[in-house]
Design goal:
376 residues; mainly alpha
């Protein structure tokens, strides 16, 4: 931990230095002088005390439970991306309740406190929900360690209404609009990733880390980076004719020496997950093309929300059901979904389309018959 010096300078006021034991740590010294101050003996002692307290927090307060979770096997088993995202929420929890006794979490009235904290952050509903999720996991860890008896963050509903996206897919029109926008923005190779996702159903982290070594004669076989129920699932994607054609095209992309990933960026390097899906890459192209999902809100008014790369998994599911003519059970096995979820995709995008086509054909046939009778 590094000592943090903060310089404050205001017009007509003397320069003031604030010295903290470490970033976001306690204030150990304040000095009014133009130059960066040297620590006094008292400040050194406060720094040592603060660092010791941070490394070995009082076991009676929530900060100690947070500290223990961060060094636990459960935390280390989380994916790096999960630790990064959850860590931000954990910092907020520590700032809010870190100095409070752990014993207060055995009081059911804390449910109201948690809901109030969630509601205070309602302007960013996904972040607010994430905070509650991380608090729930923290208290779950505490309960398993015998530090708390109940989990007051269980059962608190989410604010964000876009969490269930099972019925959202990218249509061929969406993909073509994305292609045109990618070319316009001089990011054409982002379209490679979109097409590969539509033919494999791979998540972003698995798309950008897919190498030619993962390709077999009959299937792509890869261990997913994202954990499901605490385990990494082995992904097996059938090698269809459409996928083989796309991969043959992608082999011809310009690559830097030693780059073995299927997808590359315009510099011939492998994408990172953040680089591919960031607001200045995939998100920028999507927003430029105005690719959104439209639905009615609670008042019956149309509401728009951007389609995500993750929604392309639904597109792959429809591909398996239509082009590959798989059963719900077979498609579910490939997707790692439940047959019920695949069934929802089928009823929304496959069966309903077939019904409309059948009705149109029958109506057309009746019109032809009437015209023939009239002409006869």
């Amino acid at each position: 931990m590094a000592i943090q010096f903060i310089k404050r300078s205001r017009p007509g006021m003397p320069i003031t230095w604030y010295v903290y034991a470490y970033k976001r740590g306690p204030l150990v010294m304040k000095a009014v002088q133009p130059k960066k101050p040297l620590l006094t003996a008292e400040a050194h002692a406060k720094v040592a005390e603060a660092i010791q307290a941070a490394n070995c927090p009082d076991p009676r307060i929530l900060r100690s439970l947070i500290h223990d979770w961060r060094i636990s096997p459960e935390w280390k088993k989380l994916a790096d991306s999960t630790r990064q995202v959850w860590g931000l929420s954990l910092d907020l929890i520590e700032k809010r309740w870190g100095d409070k006794p752990i014993s207060v979490w055995d009081d059911s009235r804390m449910v109201g406190k948690v809901v109030k904290w969630r509601d205070e952050r309602a302007a960013t509903p996904r972040s607010a929900d994430m905070g509650v999720t991380v608090l729930r996991e923290l208290l779950k860890f505490g309960r398993l360690r015998g530090r708390v008896r109940i989990n007051v963050a269980e059962g608190i509903p989410h604010l964000y209404k876009g969490g269930n996206r099972a019925d959202i897919i990218w249509t061929p029109e969406d993909m073509e609009a994305f292609r045109l926008a990618a070319v316009e923005l001089k990011r054409p190779l982002l379209y490679d990733g979109l097409r590969l996702a539509a033919l494999t159903g791979l998540r972003r982290a698995d798309l950008v880390s897919l190498t030619w070594d993962h390709l077999g004669e009959f299937a792509i076989v890869k261990t997913a980076l994202k954990k499901s129920r605490g385990k990494r699932r082995k992904v097996v994607i059938p090698m269809t004719d459409d996928l083989e054609k796309l991969l043959a095209e992608l082999r011809n992309r310009t690559r830097k020496e030693g780059v073995n990933t299927v997808l590359v960026n315009e510099r011939g390097r492998s994408w990172t997950a953040a680089g591919f899906g960031g607001s200045m890459s995939f998100g920028l192209v999507r927003d430029t093309a105005r690719i959104v999902h439209v639905e009615e809100d609670d008042d019956g008014q149309p509401s728009e929300r951007p389609k995500h790369l993750h929604d392309v998994r639904g597109t792959f599911c429809t591909y398996l059901l239509t082009e590959c003519e798989l059963t719900d059970e077979d498609a579910a096995w490939i997707m790692g979904w439940s047959p019920a979820r695949v069934g929802k995709i089928r009823s929304t995008y496959v069966d309903s389309a077939a019904v409309v086509i059948s009705l149109a054909e029958r109506m057309r046939a009746k019109q032809v018959a009437k015209q023939s009778e009239a002409g006869g």
